[in-house]
Amino acid sequence: MHDMSDEPQPKKPRPGWASHEPQAADTPDDARDDTRTDAAGLPRSNESDGEADGHGEPGPASAKTGASATAGASAKKAAREERRAALKARRTGWRRLVPTWRMVLGAFLVTALLVVGGFLLGYTLVQIPAANAAATQQANVYLYADGTVIARDGEVNRENVTLSQISEDAQHAVLAAEDRDFYTESAVDPLAMVRGAWNTLTGKGKQSGSTITQQYVKNYYLRQEQTVTRKVKEFFIAIKLDRNQSKDEILEGYLNTSFFGRGAYGIQAAAHAYYDMDASELDAGRAAYLAALVNAPSQYDVVAHPGNRAFVEKRWNYVLDGMVDEGWLDPAERARLTFPVPKRTTLSTTMSGQRGYIVNIVKQHLVDNKIVDEASLDAGGYRITTTLQKSKQDAFVESVDDNLMDRLDKKNRKVDTYVRAGGASIEPKTGKVVAMYNGIDYVKQYTPNATRRDFQVGSSFKPFVFTAAVENGSRTQDGRRITPGTHYDGTSERPVQGWPGPRYAPENEDHEDYGDITVSEATDKSVNAVYAQMAVDVGPDKVRKTAVDLGLSPDTPDLDGAGPSIALGVANASVLDMTQAYATLANHGKHTPYTLVEKVTQNGRDIALPERHTRRAVSREAADTTTSVLKGVVEKGTATAAQTSGRPAAGKTGTAEEDTAAWFAGYTPDLATVVAVMGQDPVTAGHKSLYGAMGLPRVNGGGAPAEIWGQYTRDALEGEPVSSFSLRLQPGADESQPPAPDSSGGPSSSGDVSAPATDAPDDENTDSGTPDDDGGSTGDDGSESEGENSTGGTTTGSPTGDTGDSGGTGTGTDGGDTTGGGTTDDGGSNRDELPGPGGLSGALDGRRWD
């Protein structure tokens, strides 16, 4: 029981009560600042402060509430300031330099926002650009038929190839050298970029830290300058490219755009520049060396800088070891590898020698035949496999050197500085050009002598006249059918009969008169008087048509409107055109347009080639009968020097006006080849006579041209079986016809060349067409079955006789004028014809016949 007292009892403090007694000075701020606040944020007092008197009126404490609240807020603020001051007082010295965690967090967030924003902005703004011009430029590569490189043209030595055309060793070597994690990593590697920059700054070597993707972007899309802008673009383009292209595509692009030194861009060009092989043939050792070159192409060429070999070998070993580490190379094979020193000199790809001629002629052939247009060729990237065979090409050059160029003395004989040579060789059955000779060196003599059309062909045109006569069933003026045995008057300067124009009387060589002579003999001796008359008997227009059908271009200068002089070779046909025409004769009258191109690809894609159709140009009888006549020229006529070929051969010599050119056009069953020796002033480019060249009185077709032909043909066909001619002759071709009734007076002057004379023999059909063999017993290969008019091939075993011609020549006006004049022909007297009033130029008064 509690004591009761009148004294007031103390009450228990309510929650929120705070003592108002002074606190100790060393009491912590937080302990002193223990004033509580209610929900309204005002300080609470004890219950007695809020009690009312017995009547419910406020007690004496209520009057102090407002002042207490104000005092409490001021006290709290003062406490906070006091705490801050205390904390600041404690951050002295180096601690004041260390950011607070709030500062670090804020800076991190701001930086992250800037980086993300900058990345998004850069990714949006930087687009994948078009490739730069230098990266798309390629060389065109010209190859022999066997794949050997002839030349590369273009400002940039690059040949793009597909990844499948690059050996796996080469792919792995480059990856081991540049980016071993290429197939598993992203397009960019920021850590590697930082590491590369650090190594560069610290003197450990210039290192970009770029991935293969970034390097490809730099090579293909951007320039090589080292700027921040370029690096930023490279970064974003690489990321986008990695999303748009496969890893294989990027690696392929990188391998085709990297620079390997020696002027080679891309691994294909590098493989040829250092090892003369395709990228598909690279083994691990060679591939590792090429991969090492990418790091420093000029310094790592051990041929150019042999003092750097130790450092280069260290890099080479690094690449190979990386291949082993990645499982791309067997350790045992790695142990067997030795350093593959590159070749000091590889096949030259410049335009010197025959290369420049070949490149330009093949390019023109591609354009003319609409295979590739000129603009596309200029852009490059084409791989052109020609029909030229390297062994035959080399044999042609060697033969020209042996039989012509090595015999010149340009220091002591001015005329020897005029000497030029041209040649072409074609397979008759295929039309493929297998060899050409165009000049001593493209960088010294630019004009290609095999395709130029500015020298007369001389008497090498005469076989076309006889072919036209057989093809058209032509007859002499007195009605006798023209065959090899037909007799003509071979008197020099004898006026032709049946020609409606002014008097035309070509002279033979040395004004020699042959009298009554057969066509075969006139061909052997190249008698101008006979062939001029034959041209009139056949008709110059028909002769022209036959020549074009055989292979001459219809645009051949001076082929039109020549009149009787067409027989003497006033036309300026090219060596290549003449070769095509003789190839048609060798192919029994079937004409296949010649081609210089076997295959064309661009970046691995085949380019379609036009179809070439073989057509019947003249009947087999016309072609084969001509061949039978031309065999005699080699066996016993003006071209016995060609017997050095050691094979059955047929051909015809020819000499242009004033000896400005000498020709031999000949063929075996397997190869047709034409050689011309020309005279040209090296300064004025004017035509020059070749009198005295090589120390000889004159140059004729039976001399150097036939000698070149014989050696070349022997070497070109070495190892191939000897083929004999299989001929189907015109009826009566092997029979000798009786001479004209009045041989002393020459053929009748009748202008009717179609109506036979009353005493003409009534033998075979003389219509213009002769039986064709396409449906007969002769197959497409031109082989002969049987028949009374067939002759087997006769080998040419007779000893080499006099190489001079014994035929005659017509006269001309001057060396360069072909208007109305006949041509000279090669002759045994070793001197030129003498122009005079009785000659061709005097007869025609310089006029051309239309």
TrEMBL record:
State where composition is biased (Low complexity). Answer: 61-76, 742-757, 788-803
Specify the domain of life of the species encoding this protein: Bacteria
Q: Which residues form the Glycosyl transferase family domain?
A: 148-323
**Composition skew (Basic and acidic residues), residue ranges:** 1-10
Q: Which InterPro entries match?
A: Beta-lactam/transpept-like, Glyco_trans_51, Glycosyltr_51/Transpeptidase, Lysozyme-like_dom_sf, PBP_transglycosylase, PCN-bd_Tpept
Q: Please write the reaction equations for the catalytic activity of this protein.
A: Preferential cleavage: (Ac)2-L-Lys-D-Ala-|-D-Ala. Also transpeptidation of peptidyl-alanyl moieties that are N-acyl substituents of D-alanine; [GlcNAc-(1->4)-Mur2Ac(oyl-L-Ala-gamma-D-Glu-L-Lys-D-Ala-D-Ala)](n)-di-trans,octa-cis-undecaprenyl diphosphate + beta-D-GlcNAc-(1->4)-Mur2Ac(oyl-L-Ala-gamma-D-Glu-L-Lys-D-Ala-D-Ala)-di-trans,octa-cis-undecaprenyl diphosphate = [GlcNAc-(1->4)-Mur2Ac(oyl-L-Ala-gamma-D-Glu-L-Lys-D-Ala-D-Ala)](n+1)-di-trans,octa-cis-undecaprenyl diphosphate + di-trans,octa-cis-undecaprenyl diphosphate + H(+)
Q: Gene3D superfamilies, alphabetically?
A: Biosynthetic peptidoglycan transglycosylase-like (1.10.3810.10), DD-peptidase/beta-lactamase superfamily (3.40.710.10)
- Domain (Penicillin-binding protein transpeptidase): residue spans on this chain: 426-683
Bilayer-crossing regions:
104-126
Quote the biased-composition stretches of kind Gly residues, using this chain's numbering. 804-825
Statement: the UniProt record of this protein carries the keyword Hydrolase: yes
UniProt biased composition (Acidic residues)? 760-787
Q: Which PANTHER family match?
A: BINDING PROTEIN TRANSPEPTIDASE, PUTATIVE-RELATED, PENICILLIN-BINDING PROTEIN 1A
State what protein this is by name.
Transglycosylase domain-containing protein
Please tell me the species this chain comes from: Streptomyces prasinosporus
